[in-house]
Amino acid sequence: MNITFDIYTIIKAALEILILWLVFYRILLFVEGTRSFHVLKGIAYLIIAFFLFQVLGLDTLNWLLTKIFAISVIGVLVIFQPELRQGLARLGQQHLFNVGLEESEMMAVCEDITTAVYRLSKNRLGCIIAIERELKLKTYIESGIEVDAKISAELLQSIFHTSSPLHDGGVISRGDRIVAASCLFPLTENPNFSKIIGTRHRAALGLTEQTDAVVVMVSEETQEISVAENGRFIPVVNRERLISILRDLLLKPKKGNAA
């Protein structure tokens, strides 16, 4: 009886530790590279100091830190407000079942997008194309105009031509279809970028900070082509590189096919 109880206790404790470890690990991954990461490090140091003060019996410092922790709950909510909002949005947008395209179909999409952005760049026309992945972009789709048409290089070029009423804003694609155009994307909240890049760049970064979308854009001013993912830009040096980036980001490796 005692042996069974002990085994159950050990399993329960191990499960709790595993869950807590996964939660903390996901939090660290989420805030890595942001200002919140350094705030978390500071909080961790304070917690370590708190336990040291308790072990050493430093009652005055222990009392002071206890009061600071009680007050800092509100401060943490204020500091982490953007990250908390983004995290809850991602959690609410996740879905269990996602039927993707076949590899050949996804590669055809990559080819069409690549062809379109290089032609737009050559013609000195800007564009911003968001490719939906695991997280639904419903909120941003509703901000634009529904299109629901099969992706083609020609259609993308016509949407972003200055004579088109849909050219102002972004396009959102899902699978091999353009879902909506003239969509509004959130601007990045990263202070390192806001003053040195244009509106399209800030919108591309902002959407990828709040969702897992991949964004391809052309700058109307410089004709440069960029890919944004996970709040960062990936360098694009030529057409082959762009196709390679899109393939790596959009094609999931099939189980059992790992090299």
Could you explain how this protein is built, in words?
The protein has 259 residues and is an alpha+beta fold. The chain has two domains: 92 residues, no CATH class; 148 residues, 3-Layer(aba) Sandwich (YojJ-like (1), CATH 3.40.1700. It has nine helices and seven strands. It has a seven-stranded mixed sheet with strand order 2-4-3-1-5-6-7, sandwiched between helices. The protein is elongated.
Overall SS class: alpha+beta
CATH class of the largest domain: Alpha Beta
Instruction: Please compute the radius of gyration using only Cα atoms.
Output: 24 Å
Q: Judging from the principal axes of the Cα atoms, what is the shape?
A: elongated
Helix and strand run = HHHHHEHEHEEHEEEH
The fraction of residues in strands falls at 5-15%
Distance between the termini: 48 Å
* Strand order of the biggest β-sheet: 2-4-3-1-5-6-7
Tell me how many strands there are.
7
Major pleated sheet: 7 strands, mixed
